[in-house]
């Protein structure tokens, strides 16, 4: 028999969500191993059940009536090496994602450096398909190892089965959501230099086109993120609040024409080719154009250096204040550009 480490009722979640919403859950259960999770009397838990990682990509909209499960399965190990310099690394779902990035960089293993400093834990990274600076979790994943809660059966998903897309995966589909708890992931890293420098200003932050180590790239990414994003130690947020919308080319051209009429013929609308006649437009650009950058509304605000991020400006923001600001932004973007912004942050 394994003993479940922590079971608490009416638990205060304010230290468990990076937005720092002062909400409670009916029950909080924390486990340290897959075996402990297997021992859990799942049927007896208050419903619904929410698997929580670092709580860095969600907004609690009020008290949670059910059970919050948090795994602390740790451990990072080299599982296998391939003759071509590939290194398969297994990491527990409860490992802090950036600790994994630091671990890899310190060993000269390429792959994770562009994902440095993203808040959250490994298990949630596999569900959200976290991404930054041209690299997504799914690009590196080989397997996601899970436990099916209802049957307690172990199930390994190969990366092809995970249906990874932009901030999307199999695990977010309604028919799958909540069924599996991630225990660990297997990532394919490499010893051969493989810098990904195409995104934005990585090259200039790095000062070279030919970094010698993943640690060098990691340092540059950390510098870029620190300059733009709120320090989680000072300011509550959940990172990017909205997804970057993907729109048809014709709609993009209409936005471009509108912008040129407003700002002059040289004005450019930032965008990325999303394939199949589709274009991705940074939501940050639209939010800035609408004058929201740095806007404060009660205890909530739009981050002054990166308007895709909504923040708990005073530490005392209620969920309603964040949601009111979210609604204002969605309505304004819809009115001006005819685009319906979708939250990236999950509302619980
Ligand atoms: N922009 C502005 N004004 C600003 C900031 C940005 O107009 O104040 C425009 C610029 O054109 C800029 C573009 O937006 O080039 C993109 O900005 P940035 O590189 O900061 O990235 P993002 O598209 O706003 C996405 C991710 C971030 C990730 C960065 C870097 C999403 C929802 N967000 O943001 O992820 O760090 O790219 O790869 O895709 C997160 O998910 O929490 C997150 C921080």
Tell the overall outline.
Answer: globular
Task: Please identify the structural class as seen in this structure.
Answer: alpha+beta
Helix and strand sequence: EEHEEEEEHHEEHEEEHHEEHEEHEEEHE
What portion of the residues fall into strands of 2 or more residues? 25-35%
Low-confidence stretches: none
Q: How many separate helices?
A: 9
Helical content stands at: 25-40%
CATH architecture label name of the largest domain? 2-Layer Sandwich
The end-to-end span amounts to: 33 Å
What ions, cofactors and ligands are bound?
uridine-diphosphate-2(N-acetylglucosaminyl) butyric acid
Task: Count up the domains.
Answer: 3
CATH class of the largest domain: Alpha Beta
Named CATH topology of the largest domain: Uridine Diphospho-n-acetylenolpyruvylglucosamine Reductase, domain 3
Describe the structure.
The protein is an alpha+beta fold and 348 residues long. The chain folds into 3 domains: 67 residues, Uridine Diphospho-n-acetylenolpyruvylglucosamine Reductase, domain 2, CATH 3.30.43.10; 153 residues, Uridine Diphospho-n-acetylenolpyruvylglucosamine Reductase, domain 3, CATH 3.30.465; 112 residues, UDP-N-acetylenolpyruvoylglucosamine reductase, C-terminal domain (Uridine Diphospho-n-acetylenolpyruvylglucosamine Reductase, domain 1). Helices cover 25% and strands 28% of the residues. The protein has a 5-stranded antiparallel beta sheet with strand order 6-7-12-10-11. Strands 1-2-5-3 form a 4-stranded mixed beta sheet. Helix 2 packs antiparallel against helix 6. The relative contact order is 0.13. The model has no long low-confidence stretch (mean pLDDT 96). Uridine-diphosphate-2(N-acetylglucosaminyl) butyric acid binds next to strand 13 and helix 8. The site of uridine-diphosphate-2(N-acetylglucosaminyl) butyric acid (EPU) has 19 residues, from strand 13 and helix 8.
């Amino acid at each position: 028999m394994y003993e479940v480490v922590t079971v608490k009722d009416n638990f205060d979640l304010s230290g468990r969500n990076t937005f720092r919403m002062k909400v409670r859950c009916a029950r909080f259960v924390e486990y340290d191993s897959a075996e402990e999770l297997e021992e859990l009397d799942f049927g007896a838990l208050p419903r619904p059940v929410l698997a929580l990682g670092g709580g860095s990509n969600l907004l609690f909209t009020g008290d949670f009536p059910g059970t919050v499960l948090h795994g602390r399965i740790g451990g990072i190990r080299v599982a296998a090496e391939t003759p071509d310099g590939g290194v398969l690394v297994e990491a527990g779902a409860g490992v802090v994602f950036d600790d994994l990035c630091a671990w890899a960089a310190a060993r000269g293993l390429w792959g994770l450096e562009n994902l440095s400093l993203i808040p959250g834990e490994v298990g949630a990274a596999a569900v959200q398909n976290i991404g930054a600076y041209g690299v997504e979790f799914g690009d590196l994943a080989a397997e996601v190892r899970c436990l099916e809660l209802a049957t307690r059966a172990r199930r390994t998903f190969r990366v092809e089965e995970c249906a990874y897309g932009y901030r999307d995966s199999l695990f977010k589909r309604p028919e799958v959501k909540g069924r599996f708890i991630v225990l660990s992931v297997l990532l394919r890293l490499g010893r051969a230099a493989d810098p990904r420098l195409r995104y934005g200003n990585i090259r200039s932050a790095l000062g070279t086109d030919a970094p010698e180590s993943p640690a060098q790239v990691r340092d540059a990414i950390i510098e870029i993120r620190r300059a733009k994003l709120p320090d989680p130690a000072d300011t509550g947020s959940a990172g990017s609040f909205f997804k970057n919308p993907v729109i048809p080319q014709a709609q993009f051209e209409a936005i471009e024409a509108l912008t040129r009429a407003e700002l002059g013929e040289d004005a450019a609308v930032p965008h990325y080719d999303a394939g199949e006649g589709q274009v991705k437009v940074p939501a940050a650009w639209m939010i800035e154009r609408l004058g929201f950058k740095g806007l404060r509304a009660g205890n909530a605000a739009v981050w002054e250096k990166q308007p895709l991020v909504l923040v708990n400006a005073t530490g005392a923001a209620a969920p309603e204040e964040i949601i009111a600001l979210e609604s204002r932004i969605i309505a304004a973007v819809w009115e001006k550009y005819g685009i319906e912004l979708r939250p990236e942050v999950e509302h619980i």
